[in-house]
Structures are given as structure tokens and as C-alpha cells.
Batch of 4 targets.
Target 1
Amino acid sequence: MPQTTRHKLPNGLTVILKEVHSAPIISWWVGYKVGSRNEPTGKTGISHWVEHMMFKGTERFPAGALDREIDRAGGTWNAFTFMDYTMYFETLPADKIDIAMEAEADRMANAIFDPDETESERTVIISERQGLENQPTFWLAEEVRGAAFRVHGYHHEIIGDETDLRAMTRDDLYEHYRRHYCPANAVAVAVGAFDSADMLSKIESFYGSIEARGAPELFARQEPSQQGERRVWVERPGKTAFYEICHRIPNAAHEDWVKLKVLDNALSGSGGASDNKTSRLYQALVKTEIAAGVGAMIVPTIDPYLYSIIVTLRDERSPAEAEEVLLREIARLQEHGISGEELSKARKQAQAAFAYSTESVTEQAYWLAQSFVLDKEDWFDGYLDRLTRVSADDVLDVAERYLVPKNRVVGILQPTDPATERE
């Protein structure tokens, strides 16, 4: 396996390099350790909005210029904001990668934030939020997260609250950018066909002159301990009921996180590369025609987050029915654990899913950037080994400790008749 090397420039920029010579392409990522986790009330959604503004140009690369250059070079580029970070990336033919490196260096220091463009993007982002609101599960997820996190920044959706999106100013956005977009708060990752010494020299030439500022103090508030099960009830026009059950779990750097990942594969099958029709919850809920579908989500995060299971109910079936069956399956797992066959299958599914998600140089670069954000340098490189070491006893142990009522948040979305809804 190609070796990953790590470096730090004098101005504080972390650099991660991995040579992969299977094809003449390179993926270049620049990630910033700031996301919705770091947003106080009044500025929710600001990280995502700043991400949008980074595509509005600099003096060197006016709006639209990079679209044309990268398209002509046969590459792709994009960006996204998560709870813990904001990422920018370009994947290009190896001999064209200087375009990406120069562009991201320029955007790190010289984004313009034109007032007219800021107002135009306000409309775009509010429309994006309103589009999300057309999905009933968005309302359920927002209420569940709001109940689970009363203090911590995971409380709000990445898109932000519409009240804040209407109130924030261009100066708010620019101050957020200037505070967080600096070498000491960033990682630069290259994966692909290059010589590491040459690549490091290029990076130093593009990024070494950017002003050295200390890493910003990130806004983050610790969530108090939960003192018992919490429940939320949502009513929205529609035809389908949903039931969501979440349990608090540790952050991704914690040794129990990967054990919970294997538990999820056995329970829901959601983390597998194939369908989940042999999983416990599919058999208990979908095969019995209580649910039209069941899925789960467990994501790596900096701070403790949630393991979420969501059930899409069939017509005429109630959330109470789904809850009874789901809690029975959790209790059965806690009482009897999983068999050796189930463990082997769950581990193989998780390994296959991870291998599938890291086939390309673009995906490998993303996971390396995320490892930096998680403050665990070997998180990506050691992931498969940690999966292999998970035992049946480990799965039983985390089921008993985390899937408990005190640790639980339950959300129910009950559809209402649109004809009876009043404005």
C-alpha cells in the first residue's frame, strides 16, 4: 500500500501526501476545520454560506474563470460543508494540477465577498433551505437534533435557521472567512500520480507565502449529560409516517466508534455495500409489512453524536408498532449478542463498503483530510485493521452500554391531511 506522508509548513499548514500511480491523475483537497458545529445562535448556516461565496471569485480568478479552466483541463471540482469541516477539492490530469493548487491558495487569502453577490447568494441559500423543507424527514431530523443537542453546535442543521439566513450580513460572512480560512486551521491533501518531494516543493511555492496566523479559537460548547429519554412529535401534511430512534454515541476517535459501526451492520445493514434485506431490522420490520423501509446512520464526528435508525411506515401501521418491534430487536441483541456468522458478515460488509468508498484518488484524499479534522492521523490508514479486531463480545458490550433509554431520543412524524391544514 502506498505510504502516506505528513508535513507542516512554517505558516502552520498541514500537508498530507499519498502517491498513487495507477492513473495519471491527482486529487487536491483543502479542508478547513470549521463547520456548523462552530456556529453560535444568530450565525447558524454561516459556514455553508461562506463556502458558496468562495465560488464568487477573487481578483486573480473572477467568478466563472475556474469553471472554464478546470473544464478545459478535463477535471472536476466542488466543495461541501459538514458539521465539523468545510472541504474544497479538484481532481485533474496530473500535468494540470497546478491550476487547483494556485486557485485554492488564492481563495484561502483573497476571496472578495462582493456585497451584491452576497445578497444574491442569500436568496439562493434560503431557497435551498425551503427545498429541503419539502422533505418530511428534514423536519423530523431537525426536531430530533434540536432535542438531542440543546447547547452544542450539532443542534442545528448545516443549512442554518432561516431567521439567521435573513439577518446575517456581508461583514459577518467576511469576518468568519478571515478568522477561519488560514493555514493553521487547514489541511492540504494530494493523492495521485506525483513525486512526493516535487509535490511538497510545489505546495511550498504556492502556500508558503500565505500569512502565518495562529489557529483560531473555535467556538464549541460541550453538551451536558442527558438525564433521560427525550421525545419529539412532528405533524406535517403528507401520507407517510416516520419513526426515528437515536442513541448518543462517542466521537469517531473513540475506540467504541468502530465497534458501533459493526453493530449497525448487523442490526440494520445500512453500512454494507449491498442491500440490507438479511439484516435484523429488515426482517423484523419490512418483511412483516410494518415498514416500507428501514435505514440507519452512523457518521464520524469530532464530538459525540448520534446513532440514528429511521423507519418509513406503511399505510395504516403506527409508530407504536414500529417502536415495539425495534426495541424488542435491541433487547434481543443486548441479551444474546450476535453469532460468529453474523459478526463475520457484518465485518465483511463494513470492510467492503469502506473499500468501495475509497477506490478513487478523490475519495482517498477526502478520507485523509477527514482524519486531520478528527485529530486522529491514523483514522483512515488504520480503519480496516480496527474493523478486523472487533469481536462479538465488543458488539454486545457497546449494545449494552449505548443502546439504553437514558441515552435515547425518539422522533415521530405523523402525517396530516393537507386539506385540513390552515396557514
Target 2
Amino acid sequence: MNILLAHNYYQQAGGEDTCFAAEAKLLRDNGHNVICHTEDNKNVGKFNYISLSAKAIWNKQSYSKIKNTIRDNKIEVVHFHNTLPLISPAAYYAARSEGAAVVQTLHNYRLICPSGIMTRNNRVCADCAGKAVTWPAVLHACYRNDRVASAVVTTMLATHRALGTWHKKVDAFIAITEFARQRLIDGGVSDRLITVKPNFVDPDPGVSTQSDGYALFLGRLSPEKGIETMLAAWEKLSPGMTLKVVGDGPLRDTVKNAAARNPAIEFIGRVEREQVFALLEKCAFLVFPSEWYETFGLVAIEAFAKGKPVVASRLGAMAEIIQDHHTGLHFEPGDVQDLAEKIRWAADHADEMQAYGRNARDTYLEKYSAQKNYAALMAIYASALQHVSALGE
């Protein structure tokens, strides 16, 4: 099969970029001809607001490039990941004009929330869900803390909602958990074409039976990730087990200051992917304290693949992926005391946590391996091809 994968890279690399690369490799490893079309948000500074706004709504250059790529390579399926802002929804129209099926993975909640994370002031927010025009996002400057930028995304969403782009030009949506699927449907996305397909970890990093007894956080250091709750919990535990914090983001200095005050906290910063698995190899468990409606949480299944349990907030996808007292522990999101108590329990019940780690490994093999994912992806592509064929486009 000839497949075009399209993705707009973020200024700061994250899970979506990893998933895009992983799916490209997965498809190539299974014999498909894969072409990648990418843009990079590091280039947005080249445009003024007016030009960038126009591109976010309808990028003529993107339309032409994708149309020509499809024609030149006899592309059958175009699979989009992120399109904001430089690819734009115009690319869907380009794909359909050439008779290709359109698949869109919904890594976040952008179709119903301009910020994409359904969080405002460190609280879950659904003010924009279901609205034809997401004006609350402009009022509160939800996208990049900028009212003008929020207005651009709001205008893009309103324009393509009015045009029926999401319903008429997409043949299959992929949500990565059932929780995310339901939130998107509640926000107005048609349930007719949304299929759940989780992310995956490939190659299999292999199970680890080692532990140096430390807890590990991996991810973006931003408020919605529950960083401050986690640091406050470690203050209650001190002296206690070591917490290693890996990542970067706006709360970097907050973490560094906490590490300077508390010898049980070690700030490592950003590391390469190989080092992530080296740290997972020897940790006792992963801490996942997020306070927003995570659509998935790739680091959780990376921990599962290594046979490590996860201590996670009972919210969003975390409550779906991590089973309490089976593959990890749940705590109430944002509750410092509850998190501290769960960490203390985990430290005192090493045998039980190791058993949860073995269950986590079994769950990875059952649900999140490359083989399972490939079969699911092929079924979605077949459905999308059938849908576009039935439309006669």
C-alpha cells in the first residue's frame, strides 16, 4: 500500500512526534511504501500574525504539495497526525481531490478545545466543548496564553466546522483511548467514524527485573502534568525514596529549586530516548501525576514494556490504562496527601509492586505491542478506503 504520513512538528518534541515516527517505521517494516510530509513549528517565526493565521485556516502551499505528492506516488491513504498550523485542514481537501482516503489521529482535544488539553488554570475545563465558536478560549487566552493566537485557532476551528470539513473530508478518526473518544464525541465530533487504537512501543525494550529503588517521572514539566503536586508530595515523604525527574518545560526552575531543597529529589532534565529506557530499567515504578484529561500517556506503556508499575492520578486515560492494584496504583488528581500515601505504600510493599510490574508487562504484550497495533491500523485503513470508495470521490 502507498501511504502518505503528514505531521506538523511541535516546537518542543513530545509524544506525538514519537508516535508519528513509530508508525512510519511500523508501516515500512511491514512492506508498505511510506512517504512523509512534515512541517516544523520552529518555522512559524518567519510569518507575521496575518500570514500565519491565513495558513492555519487554509495553506495553499500545503494543499499543492500534498496534492502533487499523492499524484506522483499513487498514494492510497493519507494519515494525518498534527496539522496545526502549517499543514492546515486544506490538506484534507487535497487528499480527497486525488481520491485518497483521509485518516486523522486525534492525539489531543484540538477539535473541541483550542488549547488541545481541556485545562484552564490547572483545572479541567470543557467550556468550549460543543460550541460552534470556541470564544471562551479567546477570552481566557487558552492557546499559548495569547488572545490573538487563540483567536486564530478558534477561527480555524469555526471555519472548518461551518464547512463541514471534519465530517465530509475525513474517512476515519483515531482516538487513542476510549476515554478520549467519549470526550470528543461529547464535544461534537461524530461518533460514526472514530475508532480507538492505542499507541505502542517498538522495538520491545525487554522486561527488567532490576530495581535501584527510585521513583521516576518522565515528561513535560508543565502545570497540567501535576508537577507541583508531585513535588509537594515528596516534601511530605522527606526523607524518603529518591524521585528522579526527567524532562523540560516551563516548570524547570521549580523542579530545580525543589531538588536543591530536598535531597530526595534529583533533577535530570531532558535526555535521549535510549536514556529513558535505561532509567526505566532500574526504577521501582513510574509516577504519572497528570491533572488534565490525558488522551493516552506513552510513558506509561513504555514503563509497562519494561515491566514497571505506574502510580497515576485517577483521571482521563490514566484511569483507563492503569488498573489500580493490578498494574499500578491510583491517587486522586491534585491531592498531595493521597499521592504521598500511595508512594509510601509502594515503598513499603515492594513485592506487591513487583507483581504489578509483571502484570504491566503482560498488558503491554496483550495490547501495546507493534504486532497488535499493525493489525488495528490496517483495519482502520481498510475502513477508510471503503468509506471514500462508497462516496465515489
Target 3
Amino acid sequence: MTSTLHSATQKSMHELAAAYVATQAAPGVAVCLVRDRSVASQFYAGFADIERAEEVSAGHRYEIGSISKSFTSLVVLTLVDEGVIALSDTVQQHLPWFEVQSDYEPITLRHLLDHSSGLIMGSDSWPDEAAQVWALRSSSTGSAPGTIFHYSNVGFMTLGAVVEAVTGRTCTDLMRERVVEVVGMPDTITTITDNDRHTMAVGYQPRHEDRAWCPGDPLAPATWFEVSAADGNVASTAADMGRYLAMLLGRGQVDGRRVISEGAFTSMITPTSPGGEPAPGPSQYALGINVEQISDRTCITHGGGMVGYSTFLIGDLELGCGVIVLTNAPGDSPGAQWLARALFDALCADSQGSPVPVAPAYAPPPRPVLPEGNDGSVSGDLAAYVGHYRSFNPWFSHLRIAAVDGRLVLVAPNGVEAPGIVDLVEISPGVFREGTDPRLPERLYMGPVVEGRALWVARHDCRYSRTFRP
């Protein structure tokens, strides 16, 4: 591999980042490139604060969202190394109060780590981690553990509760001691509080909360709140996250300092789940990280979506190259992943002696045609459920129920945890499964019907009341 980035590649990368923030729902972006398992460079584009015209700089922090799950995995694996826990342990062994309605064998820690537990995704409607884990007792698993990949934020909250139960320390404290301080990430925090707000790039979201953002739509500052749950609790800078990625590409060590053993790292990147996060090609989830085969090489990836922040990490374990992209774009924006992959392709090509020209501009999908209202194909109780509902949960604030060709459809195109457009299948009176696959655990519960209209619907532990807007 060549030792320095070709000037043409550097130029194309900077142009690509500038074009991205100029045309997408991303006011600003911070990028770090890793080469030869070391931080190579960082660059920035756009604004950390639109209103104040404050440009992105090296000191701005971004919430990294679900990339935090890899931090949780590292903490769990250090405890496995020490013999405190085992991946085959059931959750109830360490949390006797844990309960979920299930017809299947107990859930293990491995099932939580690789998203094959069968648990719901979770609503993030409560700020307390333990409360959300306790509330699982009112939900059901849709599949036997280990049989399908179904992403679960509350599953990682459960891991956080397990860590605290066996150590007497919070998972976030152990992340700081066992990961952040060992790697050398001085500007990274593992609990986000109001005291940290002034250090953050301002997060943004579409001004219109109930529809997907498309080019030309206005943005507004996103809701701010404190975060400490183990599914998405970290805020960091591009440089710090570059060191973190360098550690992962170094198989658990950086600058001679080791976070986990070689054996534990091998476990971390060995896929055990039947599926993985959406990717251009086949992917499988391992333990807190997604694993893909790109150009016949093993690569690790993970995205992160928070309210007002969208991030993506990608690295080639064989070449030792990687990219971290941090943006203050809406958490469900696909652009951070696209930009990271485009920069990664250029970096890998350059590292093998093939500088590349400017990549093509990102083309977002067209605004979807969303069904609304009742097309006349349902009546009675089903017709009473059709309508527009909202909550004050910033993760996913609006949903619509529409009638299409004799069936009900959930329409939720905007929001970090929004499911998009999915069929609603009635499994008992007033209770609907989200999606046609009978193994899916997500449920929508219809509230009381008054004068022919349902007053509210409940999704997980969050209620959405009918709103006055159609």
C-alpha cells in the first residue's frame, strides 16, 4: 500500500463532502480517515450551528447513536475474559426480575449482543434504562432466540442492566474506563448531559415531523435530551472516533494498548446472527458490530441514528483502512452511510495505488407516495382506526393508519425509529402485528373507539393520540 493519500483522492473527498452538505439534510459533517490502522487525517464541511453560522471544527462532538453498541459489546467481552459472565448465560441468571412473554427457551447474553433474541426494538419513550427493560414483561417474543435477526435497542439496554447487576457499576462508567481511556479518546463522553450541550454540534431534523425529508425541505433544530442508556449513549469527535476505529482494525489494540484479548475480538467479529443490518451486499451481525464481505475482504460496519444526528463507521480488517462519518443530520437520514461508503471506496482504492476521481453525487430516493385515509375497502372497527396519530416522543412522533385494498397499513416515514410503511395484521381484536412475517414481535394496540374513531393507539410502551391534522 502507498503511505500517503494521493492529492487527487484528497481533493475528490473534500469535494464530495462539500457537495453532500450542500444538497442533503446534513448541515455539517466531520470525517476521519484511518490508514494502516492509524488515524491519517480529518476534514470537515458545513455548519455545526446554522443559526449562528458556526462552521464544523475539530472540537465539535456528535452523538454516535448505535455505534455505541460496539462499546457495550467490548465491556461485556472484557467481563467474559475475566470470567465474571459467559455469553451462554441467560438474562435471568443476572436479572431475576427480567420477564418477557415467550413460548421459547430463555434468552442468553449472546442473543442480546447479536440481535437474535426475538425482543421488540423498543420505543425509547422513557429516559430510564431499567424502566424500559422492566416494561418488556408486557411484550412478547415473536421467534425462538437465535432464529432471526431483529434489531433491538432494548436488548442492549438489557445488557447494560446486566453489566450493572454483576459489577455494581454502570455500563457507561465501564465504557469510559475500559474503552475510552484505554484507546485514548479525551473528547469522548459516555453519558450525555445538559452540561455537555455547548460542546455539541446542533442536531437537526425536518421542520415537518410527519413526512420524510426531501431536497428543498426546511430543517429545524432537533429536540435535545440527556442520554445514558447502553444502546446509544456516546458522543465523540471525528478524531476520537478515528482512534476507536483504528483500535477495531487493530483487532482490539491501538498504540500497544489492548482493550480486549485477541480471542475476545475474534468472537466480536464472528457472525452468529442469521442476518444483519441493511447493506449493499450480504451482511451478518456479530457481537455489537455488523460484518460484510466487500471485494472479498472482511469489513466491519455500523450506523448510528439519534434525534438530530446520523453517523456511520466502516473499516476493512485486512487493509487496515476505514472511515468514520459524523453528521448533525436527521437520525434516519441515509446520507451518512452513503458518504462513508463512497469515501471508503476511494480510500481503499488509493491505498492500493489507484487514486480515484470525484464520486457521483448522492441521489436520495424520491419522495415516497404515502397512502392516507380510507380507500373505502374497510369498514366498521377497522375504519375507526384509520387516521393520523402523534406523541411527544422525539424518536418517532407521528404515525398514520391507512386503509389500502382491504387491509390496514402503518405509515411512518419520518423518525429515527420509524418503521416506514408496513402491513398491519390483526392477530386478536384490536391488536395488530407490524409486518406479514409471523415471527416479528412488534405490536400496535388500538385504543377505545368513541363516535366511530379510535382515540389513541399504543406502540410498545408509547401511546399516540389522534391528532387534529389529517
Target 4
Amino acid sequence: MGFTTIDVVIVLAFLTMVAVIGSLSGGKQRSTKDYFLGGTGVPWWAAAFSIVAAETSSLTFISLPGVAYIGNLNFLQLTLGYLTARILIALFFLPAYKKGKLTTAYAFLEQRFGHRLRRYSSVVFIFTRIAADGVRLFATAIPLALIFKTTAFFQTWSNTEIYVTSILMIAAISLVYTYTGGVKGVIWADVTQMSIYIGGALIALYLLLGQTPSSVVLGDKLEIFNFDFSDSFLGFFREPYTFWGAFVGGTFLSLASHGTDQLIVQKLLSTRSLRDSQKAIVASAIMVMLQFILFMAVGMLLYKFFKAIPVNDPSAPFHRPDEIFPYYIIHSLPIGIKGIIVAGLFAAGMSTLAGSMSSMSSSVMFDLYRPLSKKQISAEKELRISRVITIAAGLILIFVAFFFISISHSVVEIALAIASITYGGLLGVFLLGLFFRQVTEKGALIGFSAGIVAMLSVSLQPIIMGRPPYMHWTWFVFLGTLVTLLVGNLFRKRSE
């Protein structure tokens, strides 16, 4: 049983509701501060919801149940690192950001080192977001394309035409409320969207509880902690989701993504005070923990629902872990319910997309356009230029998503790994600024570049040499950060 007219109406109603809420809740903006920082008046709890929504893409929504299905609960160890990192961000990063009344995360680097590092970091961030979130836009459009393929109107359309239409629809709706509502509109739309996708996951969990056979025993699949140590040094770093790999990896990944990435920092800067931003970042860690538990519980129940059939079994109705939850939604849920859950899938993707457009445009305006422009312009004109930049950001993401229509899944995985490649260098250069007062701007620039080059080498090594990777991806940010710190400290002020 596929999608019905009722399900389609529910999805379309959701998309319309989000656009209206995001557009109206942004209020009237008179300056770039209103547009990109919400007038620094966003409640902490709304910022926390928005942070979680922004870091939860449609890939997370469909992938985590698949991870639990084919494995166990070791993935949850990452959340301990997430919590640790966000406490550290609250204690060390946010006071520096709020004290300087910064407009972007990278303004801190200019205060500490100089304008060259600020621009360099901003450019790295922008290109990272373009690659990673272009993929996420494509992934969000997949279920809409599948829905279109089941309707009579699109029967004569080619696969490419359907995907192009799906991408344009998702991007256009996200762009409308990002353009009109600014970051405040994005945040309040995120609050709505998180409620939708969490509600959808809870409905799926409730229905699965009544559908799963008791004959399938989960046993070792309920294991959370893995304290296994490999027999070799390299084996220790290659082993997936060991406790130390997950804890260290989760800590450094979250330090980078939530302490240095403008996508998240922008939301923290929009709160009323340092105390509010600290509450928002710590609360987001707790919410992510609960959210991951929910998604993986769905995966465990799907394992029982499908009677533990392996993904590689020829008789399995799915062929990849990411297909398991979508298959269940489309073929096993009642009319109306599947519309709600697919709406939740769109919510997870659109929240990341809208936040990406807003954060990229704010970084272009504050880190690049303002410093490089020689003209004094009015607040109204600067706001108009900011909106044009937002449109440009949306168009760029659309074209990147088009690129992935004809690209294999393995290339998508490479693109998603770009964030881990650049995050190490980005976190390392922020740590140099916070804790190594004698490091020069030259040292920070060279260290940043060395961290990125090191991670490119590690991540591309399996592809180029055809050998197993040196380490599991959970160690990527840690290694990139370590290289940046070591190289950066080679260049210290002579007065030391």
C-alpha cells in the first residue's frame, strides 16, 4: 500500500504551515542584526530546539534506525562525548563569544589573530556547508520523489525530472521563510519541525510495539558499551564504536560542530545573555541523547518486526540499512500516519537546510562583504544585500543537490565526510586562539591548513591505495585538531 491522497495532503499542509510560521515569526527586520541574530532576543529553550533540529538531517532520521537494525546500541556512546563537549563549549567558548559581542564564530579569530584567519576560516566553513548540505538537500528530496513516482501525473516524467522538481520544491519552501523571517524565523520553524519529526518517530515506536513478534530475541543487540581493545595499535583506531573511540570522537566532533561552526554558533549568539546560550547548548546535548535513544529504539523494533532478516539476504525487501525505516513507513503504516511521519522526515531535512542558508549568508556578510567593502552603506541597503546573499546560498545548494542525482551512493558518503575533514582544523585553530596565547596568525593559518591536508590524506587513503582506512571516522576530528595544534605551536612569538 503506497501513498494515498490523504497522505499527500498532510505532507503539503505541513510544508505550507512551516513556511507560514517561519515567515511570520521572524517579525520585521530593520538591520542585519535583526536578520542574522534575531535581535539577540531568542529564548534559550527555542535556541536549544533549533540547535537539535539543525543537527538532525533527514539522513539522521532514516539512518539511525538502520544502524541499530544491523548492529547494536554502541552508537549511543557518542552522546556521552556530545554532552562533555557542550559543557566545555559553555565554559570556555561561549564566554569569549558573548564577551566580544561577536556576529559570527569567526569574528573571534580576527580579534585573536587577525583578519586573514577570519576570512580563511569563513571560506572553509562556507565550502563545507555547500558540499555537506547540498547532499542533505538531495537526501531530503528522495522521499518526495518516491511519492511523486506513485502518482499518475508524474508517470510520464523521467527520474531526473522528478528529482529536479522535488529538490526545487523542498529548497523553495525553506528559502521562503529563511528569506522573509531571518534567523528568528528559522529558529521558530525549527521548533515546529522538531515537534513534528519527534512526534512522527514516537508514533512509529508506539505502532511497532504492537506489531513486533515476541519470538525474536534482541540479546547482544542491546549492548551499549564496548570496551574492547584491539590486538594492535592501528587496530585500536580502526575498530568501530569502541568506548574510547566513540567518546573521544563524539567530544571532538561536537566541540567542532557546536563550538566553531556558524550553523550552530549563530543560534547561540541570538540568545539574550551568556547564561541563556549556556543553557541552550547543554540542554541540546540532553535532547540529542533522548532523540538518539528514540531513533535506535525504532531500529531495534524494526529488527523484530522484519524477523531479523539480514540486509544482504536476497529475500529481504530492502538492500541497504537506510532503506529499512522508509520501507516500513511506506508499506506498513496506516493511511494518514505515513503522511505524518514523512512530514517529519521533511522537517528534519528542511531545518538543516534553512539553518545552512542563514548561516552561510551571515558569514558572507559579516566575515567577507563587510570587511572587504570600502563603502559605507545604510542598514536598509545592507539588509537588502543580505537577503540577496541568502537567495544565492539557496541556489548554490540547489545546484549541488542536482549534481548528486546521477552520482553513486559512495560519492555521497565522501561528500558527507567533508565536515569531519575540515572540522579538525577548524577546532584546532579555535583552541590555539583560546589557550595558546603565544601562537601567531601565521602559525594558526599554517596549522589550520596542515590539519585539513592531514585529514584529506587519511580519508582518501582507502580510495587511492585500496587498503583499509588507518582509523575509524570517529577519530578524524581528533587527529585534525592534534595536527593543527602541533604545527601551529611551531610558530610562537619570540617574546615568550
